[in-house]
Amino acid sequence: MGDNQSFDPANVTDIARQLARKPFVPQPNDLPDFFSNLNFDQYVSIKSLRTPIWGTEGRGIAVEPLHRGFVFNNAVDLYLVEDGTVRRIGFDPSKFDYGRLTPPEKLGDIGFSGFKLIATPSEGPPFDFAIVQGATFFRAIAKGQTFGATARALTLKPAEAKGEEFPAFRAFWLERPAVGSNGITIHAVLDSESTTGAVRMTFRPGDMTIIDVETTLFPRVNLEHVGLGGIGSTYFYGPNDRRNADDMRPAVYESSGLQMLNGKGEWLWRPLHNPETLQISAFVDNAPRGFGLLQRERSYEAFQDDDRRLERRPSLWVEPLGDWAQGSVQLLEIPTDAEINQNILTYWRPKAPMAAGSEVPFAYRQYWCWSPPERPPLATVATTRVGRGSGGRRRRFAVDFSGDMLGDTLPADLKPVLTVGPGTVQNVKLWPYPERKTVRVAFELDPGNENACEMRLILEAGGKPISETWLYRWTP
After folding, report:
1. Are residues 257 and 322 in the same domain?
2. Where in the numbering of this chain does the Glucan biosynthesis periplasmic MdoG C-terminal domain appear (predicted)?
3. Span 386-397, mean pLDDT?
4. pLDDT of res. 437
5. Is residue 375 part of a domain?
6. Boundary (domain end) residue, out of 346, 369, 392
7. How many CB atoms lie within 10 A of CB 248?
8. 4 falls within a domain
């Protein structure tokens, strides 16, 4: 669907369907070396001179195309849909300020790397709330936050021996919002060696930015390892993991843990970790109700980072729409010695493979937020602290649960239920702090000769859980 053609969302799906019937053709590497060799600081110095598209029309949302360069080498076609008609956005170097850079002459139409979405409220200043750029990556924030976690429209074969496959968006169609609206609908085609797909995303910015994602995949081959609702983030070090802590800051992470609400209605919390070796965890489930990477630490004192303001990074909660059947929430924790690396990846992996030649629809809703709209009606884990134990390989743990039910009148039969396998736990103690509505469970893990121990902890009263379930994998 090109210039001056009528727009029909069904045509986007048909483009992806027809593309899947052809052999995969990699995108040409046509970006001039001048741009592909830029470092980060040079790249971000390129500024757009144009007024954001629709920025003066009172539509609530404006669009700014993004230049190619640095690691964003692949070109995407951008089309606007206005009054039912398609209009392509052409690249024009005169619309950019290159600062001290001297770009090549006669660039031609090199396309764009993606786009930025800007909220233009009737009251208050405009603010960037989403960036769609690179592979099938996109990011968003709630009002007042800074960008952090990254979503993936599709994840293929992560951490496999043959290497991960990165699908890429090829083209976008952006529907002009109605005047005064607070949402924008965007259609896209993605392509990779194994599959194509048609994607429809609806963005609604605000105090909580909500994105609905509807995708239909058209596999070229049998897909065995597919990730839906993928989220990437960073965990460098924190109270439970100070392996890389030669730093003035007490902690460095964008997300503190993986929250899950499984099909049985159980709330699970898994603190994140920067391990010595790659760790892959699978939380088997049927019809999951939600999962996400959350930033639970919202105090400046926890990070003491004046530049990055990690306490303002978004939590991202994914809510499946429809029945996702059997599968597992996968968590990859990748060793890193640099805080700039996103070393955490989580996604839903369906148990059933997707057959070549099939059409596979799925949908989900994302909440980019300070805290998810649906929260455990239980005490939640506030912090997990880990340090040296009494000797040998033993490690000392302190897990703090917080909630209104842990205030002045604690249940008389309140107790921690802690299991481990393999290994053993000793010296389990419960420390109540009703003035802070907190209970600390302290214990020592003795792993023996094991190199991985799985632990599970809940607070119980009256034979029922009064806390979410704390899960932890210890590794050396």
Report:
1. yes
2. 7-474
3. 95
4. 96
5. no
6. 369
7. 6
8. no
Q: How many residues does the chain have?
A: 476
pLDDT, mean over the chain? 95
Position 181 confidence tier, pLDDT thresholds 50, 70, 90? confident
Predicted TM-score (pTM) of the model is 0.96
- Assigned token pair, 81: 């849909």
Segment 55-85, tens digit of pLDDT:
999 999 999 999 999 999 999 999 999 999 9
Domain count within the chain: 2
Q: Phi then psi for 88, rounded to 5 degrees? A: -80, 140
Give exposure, 372-384, as e/b (b: 16+ Cβ within 10 Å).
beeebebbbbbbb
The three-state (H, E, C) secondary structure of the chain, written as one string: CCCCCECCHHHHHHHHHHHHCCCCCCCCCCCCHHHHCCCHHHHHCCEECCCCECCCCCCCEEEEEECCECCECCCEEEEEEECCEEEECCCCHHHEECCCCCCCCCCCCCCECEEEEEECCCCCCCEEEEEEECCCEEEECCCCCCCCCEEECCEECCCCCCCCECCEEEEEEEECCCCCCCCEEEEEEEECCCEEEEEEEEEECCCCEEEEEEEEEEECCCECCEEEEEEEECEEEECCECCCCCCCCCCEECCCEEEEECCCCCEEEEECCCCCCCEEEEEEEECCCEEEEECCCCCHHHCCCCCCCHHHCCEEEEEEECCCCEEEEEEEECCCCCCCCCCEEEEEEECCCECCCCCEEEEEEEEEECCCCCCCCCEEEEEEEEEECCCCCCEEEEEEEECHHHCCCCCCCCEEEEEEECCEEEEEEEEEEHHHCEEEEEEEEECCCCCCEEEEEEEEECCEECECEEEEEECC
pLDDT at 270 over 80: yes
Domain of 407 in residue numbering reads as 380-474
pLDDT tier, 211 (very low <50, low <70, confident <90, very high otherwise) = very high
Does a structural domain hold residue 467?
yes
Confidence of residue 314 (pLDDT cuts 50, 70, 90): very high
Q: Does 264 share its domain with 387?
A: no
- Band (185; pLDDT cuts 50, 70, 90): very high
Q: Are 252 and 310 in contact (CB under 8 A)?
A: yes
pLDDT attached to residue 468: 98
pLDDT (tens digit per residue) in 102-138: 999 888 899 999 999 999 998 889 999 999 999 999 9
